[in-house]
Sequence to fold (930 residues):
Amino acid sequence: MRFEPAASQGRERAPAALKLAVAGVLLFLHLPFAIIVLYAFTTDDASYRFPPPGLTLDWLQVAWNRPDVWQALGLSLRVAAAATAAALVLGTLAAAAVHKSRFFGREALSFLLILPIALPGIVTGIALRSAMSLASIPFSFWTVVVGHATFCVVVVYNNVLARLRRTPASLAEASMDLGATPQQTFRRILLPHLATALVAGGMLAFALSFDEIIVTTFTAGQQQTLPIWIYAQLSKPRQRPVTNVVAVFVVLTTAVPILLAHLLTRDKGGGIAGER
Amino acid sequence: MAGERAPVVRFIGVSRHFGSLRAVDDVSLDIADGEFFSMLGPSGSGKTTCLRLIAGFDRPTSGRILLHGLDAERLPPFERDVNTVFQDYALFPHMTVEENVAYGLAIRNVPRAERRRRAGEMLELVRLPEVASRRPGQLSGGQRQRVALARALVNRPRVLLLDEPLGALDLKLRQQMQIELKAIQERLAITFVYVTHDQEEALAMSDRLAVFREGRVDQVGTPAEVYERPATPFVADFVGTSNLIEGRLAERLAGSPAPCTIRPEKIRIVAAAAPVAGGDGAVDGTIRDVVYLGSHTRYRVEVGEGVVLVVVELNRATTAVDAHAARGRPVRLAWAREHLRPVGGR
Amino acid sequence: MRSTRRSPGRAAATFLFLRPRLALGLLLAPPLAWLGAVYLGSLASLVVQSFFHLDGFTGQVIRKFTFATWRDLMTPANFDIALRTATMAAAVTVAAALLAFPLAYYMARYASPAVKAVLMVGVLLPLWSSYLVRVYSWKLILAKEGVFAWFVGQAGLTWLLERVLALPVIGGPSLSVSSLGTFLAFLYVWLPYMILPIEAALQRVPRSLVEASADLGARPAQTFRRVTLPLALPGVIAGSIFTFSLTLGDFVVPSVLGNSSLFIGQAVLAHQGTAGNIPLAAAFTVIPMAIMGAYLLFARRLGAFDAL
Fold:
């Protein structure tokens, strides 16, 4: 493979210009987060003045006491939880079916699952909106959930399928060989084995839903999720730092599940059946 | 097990095709109750597929399999009185060794106390009582192999299937496990169906063995039968090593052009032009190559017409120096006539 | 014997085990029903809607087959919107490829496993974390009195910034209300989508190929251009599918950072929202779908799907 122990020259050193470019791109990717955090503490509440005229913790309290923030947060959490639950069930079933057998249209199914996330967001959004209008379905909590679940299925599917592909077929066979039905085998052997992949897929789906705005705009009527709340605030000049505080909160609540999901699905290697 | 040993597994014209590949092709065989039966063959010869057909993981394309005299067609693996030791052991990584061994009992709703007792007994049987609370990941390859065996035996199956169970172990451990497996099989008096590509292993352990080639069974018999009277040139070559003699040389030595074989250890090297006893066969040749192997030496002797015969001699008095000095020497090869055996066509 | 312990559950399990097609069907039914009915059904309704028409007088959608909506779509103004969006998508894609390549190259070629793991998190975190917040951060950075202007001022380059803002098309009153600002924000939010596929493609270039090229006398620059770059191209194309598609379908970035000239996403949003003209909005989305369809065909010919 790439790291041959016998290779005498060892790892090559990167040219300085390349290192500089790498550092530049990484800064570009991460500095904006620092800016957001900084602005959550500025005393200037009407413009984007830099450097901030002063720093204060007041906005945390103001944001804490805003009922609209809590409402939006509550809705976002409920939508994300419901969409994640649906995505977990649908994604796991699809992954199990694709892994279990080669059937006609297998590729088509994978493609169909990826489509909602690969097509431009407005396409998914306006398509759902148009279907709702044709079928005269009123906007509701559930229309938002349906939209979110549709594009969340694929992350669960990908995680579970990847784990199934790394699971030796002999584990399930050994269980059935010892008398367990496929249902018992799923509960006692496969589910514990898939647990971290399910948690990871679920967390990514949760983060995806918690943060979504484009599809939500088309499927929510008066329902204000947290991203929609932020989006609405952007055009209001008053109490901007409250928006910044909420933004920091959103970044933190999505970063934690993402990091956990990443850690859970990293290839730990070994420990799996016979270590082959 | 009184009286007649009825077949516990019976294959009747069983085939398993994957598309155009005939993994198993019209196999019929009987495995008797309580015997140690090996399926021997190179990789891809269909022996593992046969094992999976017995276990129920796979179903025949045509033909019938009888387990204990009953058609197994409608029996899924979880309803078969058959258990398997997998090649990769397939231990459940999230369970302790004890939980692994007791899994089959837990599925049967055996009470916890009895589960523990029987799992303990099985771990005693495979001489691993001290690792019960560990996880499979913390065990060595040999230990995992024993746990897999204990787990498969805990349900007291009438047939135990073993898929190259010793393949991943080193030579010393493998030889030790061969003896232990055989002892366990005799003690529990259950049928072992043992898949291997190692002919020595099959000869050492089996009551009977089937030699597989390209999805078909070339020969079924006791180790002695298969070794001494190979039914086909393939069996002669795959089980042990063998000199295949055909054509004009066969006519000269055996009096007929039909192919025949002779085992390397059945040939004696005598001095060139030495007299040969009346019933014996002989041919003159030149030693071309010598491989000194410690306990014995392997010679390659050219006997004319481009044919090379392999001869193995024990180094009773021969030293390495003697052996290598023989290179290039003209010699006469002699053998008792009954060892030059005709073999059937391919 | 085991058959004496038959419970209804086990009987059902046996029944299904012996009928793998039925079992597969049961597994597939819920996801297929969801995606087939909800998603494909919605896409179909989108096409159907585009052949309805909004009665401008009553504000009601008339559910009768007509090409009127499609005729409404074919106006110079809408053509401008499509062209502007596609140009932006192309510019963002090219810039993202240029920025992504060095980082991806470093990750695949030079980084030790530990450094690589850190860099991977460094790319994944922005990819997954709040898109809206990340767009918003550029509003803070590019505002007239914001971070970027301040640094430019400190460097004594305010005159240069003013020159750039004075340019037609890309300029504007400030960076946060200009095409240039829109471009920067797009580049920022979609960059990780370009880095990952390029890294994956470069990862698959065997080191021995690079060494073989060097062994045959190629200078490092020649090896890079003739061996590494062509092999990384599928990754670039795969990444460009994301950056292109995401830019085409976005309305948040241009409305937070843009000037008054519309992008496709904004037009769709406006038509379905305030105007209630869902047929026209539906017809409008066919433009990005057509562009993406053509692009995907082109990408498949270049082998980009292997790098996804």
